[in-house]
# Entry
Amino acid sequence: MATVRKAEAFLVDLEVEQVRTDAVQAFLSQETVFVELTTDDGAVGLGYTYTIGTGGTAVLALLRDHLLPRLVGADATRVEAVWHDLFASTRATTVGAITSLALAAVDTALWDLRCIRAGEPLWRVAGGFQSRVPLYDTETGWLHLNTDELVAGALKARDAGWRGIKVKVGKPSGAEDAARLAAVREAVGPHFPVMVDANQSMTLAEALRRAELFAPLGLTWLEEPLPADDVAAHERLAHATNIPIAVGESLYSVAQFREYLHRGAASVVQVDVARIGGITPWLKVAHTAETFNAEVCPHFLMELHVSLAAAVPNGRFVEHIPQLRAITTGEMSVVDGCAVAPDMPGLGIAWNRDAMDDLRVA
# Structure
């Protein structure tokens, strides 16, 4: 038993490392909420969650006002019990983004403690299937970039050894989206993986039209074409196109993923450890996806997701969007276009505590 004696939360606001736009929003900043847990034997676990510019203070308030007081006196080794107790105590606000984000900060701190106590890295404790996962780049594909910039970025990524690229879609004209994608496909060749992301911007009718336009381009997946809560429309689209449909960054419970998979509404799972509520439910989603023979390609948070995607048999890709370099002392290792899971005990992220303190929001 390791009793939690101290539980603290704080917010660090990070500027975006480059301009990032999609069909519905811009990435304004990374509000990064940390939870630090100290047990009676002096062990410390640090977990985190994030937003892309709004809601961070709401997450922080939920943690400080409600969740963290419940943690004091809890057994930190009973991760499932703690997660379910906190979830049950927030029934009135679940399933929902703010609660899931808050739960994730606690859960990742508990997993950090678990791995540190075991003297093992997260990817081994969580399953240990593989030590590295193919990496695809999103930074070269934002919607505000013109076609020449997209092509140049795609060629740079391919020549640097990346295993794929993602291009944002959602221009007013489907013909413009298709022309941009066709230019990228012609530049990188027929075999290089190209993913596209619509960020929930389309109606079903428009998604059907654009999927038909995109079909000849050999896309690896079409991501979030429709509002994430419209499973029925995703099901109709998935059955009408040969492009794999990807969802997950905007889903907040294991049951939502189960419904998508059961109905054949998606075949690529992009579960986000912060938005699903932590590592504990993330692994449940990944294993559920495995039973449907579906790949897991998590959204964002590459520094943490590399270890989780490496832990499971169906971890297919990690998304390259660097955003923690201002508060870490080292970067994720990349070898032959693959993200390498860190071997340090814990979550495997080398935090720079001085830099974090400098960027704390009062």
